[in-house]
Amino acid sequence: MAAAVVVEEKEKEKEERERLIERVEVLDFDKLCSTVAMKTNQGKWSKLEEVYDEEDDGGELGGGVFRMWEGDVLECFDDRRLLLQSSFWPWYRFGENMRLAGFGSCFLQGSVYIILATIALCNFVAFTITKKPCFLYLAVAFALTLGAYLGIHRSKMRKKFNIKGSDSSLDDCISHLMCPCCTLAQESRTLEMNNVHDGTWHGRGYTMCIGTYVEGVKAFELIPPLAVSIEPSKP
Question: pTM value?
Fold first, then answer.
């Protein structure tokens, strides 16, 4: 009985090896590192299978591949170009981010930003002139609406690309309300440094050939390293 089990396991290993040789798939380096880290934390090596979702991020792998924002929110001074654009032309920077992430055209998203920000600003100016509280309420309401709009799209971006961070959309909204320029700059750094275009995460360009292809399923198999003894050899 035990011999039959061993033979069956060897046959399965042989089949997997043949499928691996037949066709390889190019795997982004950051995906590989993420997968290795996950399997190491679980204390085991196994096959990771991910099904492509046609409505997902343009062919990117879904759950199981975790990424991170490029730098903290307050590290906006690392890229002065993005900081200046986020500070003086936030509507353009937001629209460009949405275009790269695949959430609409730059013109459309930028126009929504301008409309909400202009209405909030006009109501605030009207309040300073007339001292009527209704204008102040409207200004605050549209400012909160703008922050919520930006925060919701930040959450959508985080979920689409599996970016590690807070799972609360409220935290994303608060980030845009407290420091919108720094938050926009962080999103821009992440998208540009990882070559995200039209909703597809291309990574930083480091690739490695690994795994195989099965009809309708992306299957990657990580091979554990060979065990090496660290004990000194006995003479």
Answer: 0.61
